[in-house]
């Protein structure tokens, strides 16, 4: 079943008198439950595409359907609503609040929704459990390793039970062994039916997805298999 349908999406930025085209008529179809990696070098348009898929920004032209809703036609409030309901974000640098414990970081999105203290704690514990970090719930981020911090961030991304996880270089700040542990957590979340969209410049990471799409100079390329012409990167 179709989850995301992007057609002929164009996004430009204006800097001074110049126009930079970050996405050139990008089309991308993602089904529910897929695990897709988008790989490309620096400056290829990955962040721009992530901002589009994540409903953080709107395209200049083209169409973006997310569960049959027209994202391109939404105002900022509608974008914020669909983002909160549909998408969990995972970042390279974890983006945890340093003065809050792991469980407080995880529960934070629920605070804005007016969920009761009791339910916030229960749900945050479940999410920490899911990433294997229940025993670190009351640690501060500085008391956790990089891999543990990323697990907290993944738990936070799950707190509103979004159907989509959008991960931007989730292993970019981690050593290779810890990266692999985080990839295993992400794979397990896909196994339980969540759609994973992973953005990376690391071929070893991308290859662990079930489908790999390359982005280069704002254009997408897909070759059907899991073979990637590395020279094309
Ligand atoms: P990546 O994430 O792959 O490094 P980006 O999406 O950040 O690529 O950038 C794609 C192109 O768009 C680059 O040429 C970049 O300089 C330009 N760009 C991205 N964001 C902006 C912005 N906010 N203002 C101006 N140019 C931008
Ligand atoms: P990364 O490749 O590590 O994701 P980027 O180069 O894409 O980092 O930059 C990160 C942020 O900076 C993005 O949100 C992007 O939109 C913005 N950005 C990128 N290039 C420019 C630019 N030339 N001018 C202004 N903002 C930019």
TrEMBL record:
<dbReference type="GO" id="GO:0005886">
    <property type="term" value="C:plasma membrane"/>
</dbReference>
<dbReference type="GO" id="GO:0005524">
    <property type="term" value="F:ATP binding"/>
</dbReference>
<dbReference type="InterPro" id="IPR015854">
    <property type="entry name" value="ABC_transpr_LolD-like"/>
</dbReference>
<dbReference type="InterPro" id="IPR017871">
    <property type="entry name" value="ABC_transporter-like_CS"/>
</dbReference>
<keyword id="KW-0547">Nucleotide-binding</keyword>
<dbReference type="InterPro" id="IPR003593">
    <property type="entry name" value="AAA+_ATPase"/>
</dbReference>
<protein>
    <submittedName>
        <fullName>ABC transporter ATP-binding protein</fullName>
    </submittedName>
</protein>
<keyword id="KW-0813">Transport</keyword>
<dbReference type="GO" id="GO:0098796">
    <property type="term" value="C:membrane protein complex"/>
</dbReference>
<dbReference type="GO" id="GO:0016887">
    <property type="term" value="F:ATP hydrolysis activity"/>
</dbReference>
<feature type="domain" description="ABC transporter">
    <location>
        <begin position="4"/>
        <end position="233"/>
    </location>
</feature>
<dbReference type="Pfam" id="PF00005">
    <property type="entry name" value="ABC_tran"/>
</dbReference>
<dbReference type="InterPro" id="IPR027417">
    <property type="entry name" value="P-loop_NTPase"/>
</dbReference>
<dbReference type="GO" id="GO:0022857">
    <property type="term" value="F:transmembrane transporter activity"/>
</dbReference>
<comment type="similarity">
    <text>Belongs to the ABC transporter superfamily.</text>
</comment>
<keyword id="KW-0067">ATP-binding</keyword>
<dbReference type="InterPro" id="IPR017911">
    <property type="entry name" value="MacB-like_ATP-bd"/>
</dbReference>
<dbReference type="InterPro" id="IPR003439">
    <property type="entry name" value="ABC_transporter-like_ATP-bd"/>
</dbReference>
């Amino acid at each position: 079943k179709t989850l995301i349908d992007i057609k002929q999406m164009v996004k430009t930025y204006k800097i001074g008198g110049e126009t930079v085209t970050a996405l050139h008529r990008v089309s991308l179809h993602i089904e529910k439950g897929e695990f897709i990696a988008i790989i490309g070098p620096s400056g290829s348009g990955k962040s721009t595409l992530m901002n589009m898929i994540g409903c953080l920004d709107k395209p200049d032209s083209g169409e973006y359907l997310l569960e049959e809703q027209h994202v391109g036609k939404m105002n900022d409030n509608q974008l914020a609503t669909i983002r909160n309901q549909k998408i969990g974000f995972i970042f390279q640098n974890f983006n945890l609040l340093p003065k809050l414990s792991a469980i407080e970081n995880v529960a934070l999105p629920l605070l804005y929704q007016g969920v009761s203290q009791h339910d916030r704690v229960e749900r945050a514990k479940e999410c920490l459990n899911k990433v294997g970090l229940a025993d670190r719930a009351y640690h501060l981020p500085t008391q956790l390793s990089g891999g543990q911090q990323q697990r907290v961030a993944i738990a936070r991304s799950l707190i509103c039970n979004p159907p989509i996880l959008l991960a931007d270089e989730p292993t970019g700040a981690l050593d290779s062994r810890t990266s692999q542990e985080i990839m295993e957590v992400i794979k397990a979340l896909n196994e339980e039916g969540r759609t994973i969209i992973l953005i990376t410049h690391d071929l070893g990471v991308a290859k662990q997805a079930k489908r790999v799409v390359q982005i280069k100079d704002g254009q997408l390329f897909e070759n059907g298999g899991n073979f990637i012409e590395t020279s094309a990167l």
